[in-house]
## 1
Amino acid sequence: MTAASTEAPAFHRVVVAVDGPSGSGKSSVSRAAAEQLGFDFLDTGAAYRALTWLGLERGIDLDDADAVAALLPEFEATYRIALRPAERWVYVAGTDVTEAIRTTELSRRVSAVARVPRVREALNRTFRRVLAEGDAPGAIAEGRDVTTVVAPDAAVRILLTADESVRIERRAAERAGEDRVAVAASVSQRDAADRRVVDFIEPAPGVRVLDSTRLDVRQTIGAMVELIRERCGLDAAGTDEKES
Ligand SMILES: Nc1ncnc2c1ncn2[C@@H]1O[C@H](COP(=O)(O)OP(=O)(O)OP(=O)(O)O)[C@@H](O)[C@H]1O
Ligand SMILES: Nc1ccn([C@H]2C[C@H](O)[C@@H](COP(=O)(O)O)O2)c(=O)n1
């Protein structure tokens, strides 16, 4: 994934858009579903996180929209992310930031960067180009505004949800050893901040809701894969049923 072009290209492969709140399982479930289907996997939140990392690294004030936007040329020239779901790496400015962009501190700061309109416009152009290119038969992209802004014309659009208490429990389990109250606050506060910019709670018209509150990870992956196969007419081997 490299520098952005200016126009939004049409998609020549199956694109699946997945949105939802923090901790709903977007990245883990979408990644596994993409692996099963032989699709690419695009974690759009990773780009916002990597840009935040770059801003912190350069020592800029993340509340200064002009300073954040000024990072975009370097970011676009150096940002790289794995698209194969079995791989997991993110680079920016020549640095492997795969782990660094997942810290609690960075999660706390990312919403300030994600609310800058110039940032959103630039990243969205890049996401669309990546989704349109790629040689896998399809791609699953997940984030907050993929069903509504990045790829409103995607073949399948899913809002992955779960009750807030369940999402907090999942995040707390992942961050065993960290203060549970702080984990809960970070999930709620980030969602509240992000919701001021995009709506990822109410499904837009045509978006299917997948509620994982009472499903385990395996069941949620199965439900997502089933939904995609049904909508795209794919058989269990991932082949187009009309052509097989
Ligand atoms: N259906 C499920 N049942 C139980 N645990 C789940 C389920 N789906 C996801 N999880 C777990 O919940 C945690 C959060 O999932 P994940 O990181 O995929 O969420 P996310 O929506 O991408 O979050 P964020 O937007 O904050 O990055 C992970 O530990 C994941 O394994
Ligand atoms: N399409 C997107 C994706 C992400 N964001 C913002 C909101 C999140 O706080 C941050 C990190 O995303 P995550 O890795 O937690 O999915 O990026 C957004 O505004 N739009």
Note: The beta strands are 14-19, 40-43, 80-81, 90-92, 95-96, 138-143, 156-161, 208-211.
## 2
Amino acid sequence: MNYFNSLPLRIQLEELSKCRFMDRAEFDAGVEALKGKKIVIVGCGAQGLNQGLNLKDSGLDVSYALRESAIKEKRQSWKNATDNGFTVGTYEELIPQADLVSNLTPDKQHSSVVEQVMPLMKKGATLSYSHGFNIVEEGMKIRDDITVIMVAPKCPGTEVREEYKRGFGVPTLIAVHRENDPNGEGLEQAKAYAAGLGSHLAGVLESSFIAEVKSDLMGEQTILCGVLQTGSILCFEKMVADGIDAGYASKLIQQGWEVITEALKIGGISNMMDRLSNPAKIKAFDLSEELKGIMRPLFEKHMDDIITGEFSKTMMEDWANDDKNLLTWRAETAETAFEKATSSAEIDEQEYFDHGILMVAMVKAGVELAFEVMCSSGIIEESAYYESLHETPLIANTIARRKLYEMNVVISDTAEYGCYLFAHACVPLLKDFMAKIGTDVIGKGLTVKSNSVDNARLVEVNDAIRDHTVELIGYELRGHMTDMKRII
Ligand SMILES: NC(=O)C1=CN([C@@H]2O[C@H](COP(=O)(O)OP(=O)(O)OC[C@H]3O[C@@H](n4cnc5c(N)ncnc54)[C@H](OP(=O)(O)O)[C@@H]3O)[C@@H](O)[C@H]2O)C=CC1
Ligand SMILES: CC[C@](O)(C(C)=O)C(=O)O
Ligand SMILES: [Mg+2]
Ligand SMILES: [Mg+2]
């Protein structure tokens, strides 16, 4: 039963809007609350491996419980854990001694994993998640003596590790399930876990399972993955159809998302737009306004379906149908012309902006729309910021490595499903828009020789960019991220 839908409206609204930016001083105790405790992570995939490595490097005692077949067959999860020197065992061997069990298996498996693990957990232990789907959308009930917490990095697992190694962290939402905090210790444990990941250096929000689930699903389906997938496919097809070399087009997109969104990460939409010449900025602004008009109903549909539970219902139907949609969409993505092209050509950093005006417009439109629609549904600005603007560069990093394949491997299966769902609706939606697009905004750059523009219009555009709420909250939140490391 859908837990969110079972709650009275008053509690739904309270949970949805729960979000408090935590002060760095609240983490002065570091990992103390988990020091000397046995942490057993179930699953050693994208989040499991990288979270475990950070926790171990932060001085915590981490081991991995894997299903028996993974151990017997020495599967990748077993290799991930053993190659990194962790103790690995079956549920029966490790779970009974665990003080904290972190469930980092795919969302689809949560019910079955929790049903196997729960009877083995000792009295008073803690169960942790990195995404609340199982609790919120499936209504999983956890034994009364068990504390249930969430530590959800707003980021792919690979970047959880990379940012930690750079001496930083990734913004993370923490929460305690309101039905399961028997000893009132959940928050201290979640804080210690987040500190072990390095997240306190980037910013931790004290939130709720519900706010995390609804905002996480929305971010990943739309701007974070859906828009980048849609944009990659459409921009590549357009360039090649207009005679641009496929190797150049492929590189412009594959690396372009990372270069463009690095500007976003450092200085928000304002800085990203400021990287364009005056005429190109005005062009990108106009394109993004048009894109926002076309895509807004689709963003709203995704948000509505996430809030009502319609999205989770249809995804769970696909789980029950052996992931037919997910696997078909995954295979189709592998066959797209963009995915198959080889990226070649030398491209200067500035050229990614000058020749990628449409990509800049897509990022701006996607970030603003995701942020606006999340906030209009009761999600707090800080949370909406992390799920839109902040995380986009981290996802773009994955495309820069090995295109859409890498992005879809690294993100969770839930995010991958939502990404394809969005892209399948968005690609046809933008057909007429793309028919009017020329190589001046994607591939070659504007043909104008001068940087001259009408002053009044430039002021109007700059004001609209800078006054957007995502910029105002972003300015404040980035102020807390002074340790952030540059990657370009
Ligand atoms: N991917 C990401 O970057 C993010 C993920 N999350 C959340 O983190 C959680 C983990 O996701 P993610 O890291 O993507 O997962 P992965 O798909 O990368 O890893 C899954 C791990 O679970 C194991 N596993 C799979 N099926 C089962 C099963 N039936 N029983 C036991 N173990 C199983 C796999 O090992 P094997 O098959 O060998 O047994 C593998 O080690 C999810 O809740 C997700 O929403 C949150 C933020 C970002
Ligand atoms: C972007 C998708 C994500 O929510 C994440 C990496 O934060 C996921 O589920 O993978
Ligand atoms: Mg996420
Ligand atoms: Mg997710």
Note: The first helix runs from residue 3 to 6.
